Amino acid sequence: xxxxxxxxxxxxxxxxxxxxxxxxxxxxxxxxxxxxxxxxxxxxxxxxxxxxxxxxxxxxxxxxxxxxxxxxxxxxxxxxxxxxxxxxxxxxxxxxxxxxxxxxxxxxxxxxxxxxxxxxxxxxxxxxxxxxxxxxxxxxxxxxxxxxx
Length: 149
What we know:
By secondary structure, this protein is an alpha+beta fold. The chain contains five helices and five strands, in the order ββααββααβα.
């Protein structure tokens, strides 16, 4: 893994090094993540009712670690009064989901990653921001009475 070394100067100390940030995902990670997202969405469409009931679950994104051993799956849950319960149910059935994923991508991938599920609340955030923007009242600009020259 390539690491970037930054030099930071703090107010009470001299120049400090060894602060690293991970680089962006590689092309391989992105392709692998898209493959997993596509296959998991099909698995959830066919077998999802067994794991999370009648709730509507979509996969909004998958990020994969550089060694391709862990896939972090972001899900969006609709029609659920308690999204945490659905997430808990998915985490209980993670091994079944991973097995179904392995059966589907076994010829395309060497490693079947461990799955970690997270709730993606970005759509809720977008709805909240849109409602805030709709409620903003912008007063009209004052009328100019500069008809005199």
